[in-house]
Write a structure and sequence with these properties.
With about 80 residues, the protein is mainly alpha-helical. It is built from 3 helices and no strands.
């Protein structure tokens, strides 16, 4: 059982370290993208900001994944 418990510990540690990348659409986006979305929030009604922020960042995240899967090169960051 020593091998399985070692494997379980390594997998658990890895999940805690990188788990947010799997569930948080903002985790792998450049900080400039997140900041740009934040600068747009004053133009959105206050009660809708959280929803709009999540949707916009989620769409950008999905678009980025779709491009990576289809092999389309993305522009390098400036």
């Amino acid at each position: 059982m020593g091998i399985l418990s070692d494997l379980d510990k390594k997998l658990t540690d890895n999940l805690y370290e990188h788990g947010s990348e799997l569930t948080d659409p903002v985790a792998d986006l450049p900080q400039t993208v997140v900041e740009t979305v934040e600068r747009l929030m004053p133009f959105v009604q206050p009660e809708a900001r959280d929803t709009v922020r999540r949707q916009v960042l989620g769409l950008i995240h999905e678009y980025k994944i779709d491009n990576l899967q289809s092999g389309i090169e993305q522009d390098p960051p400036d």
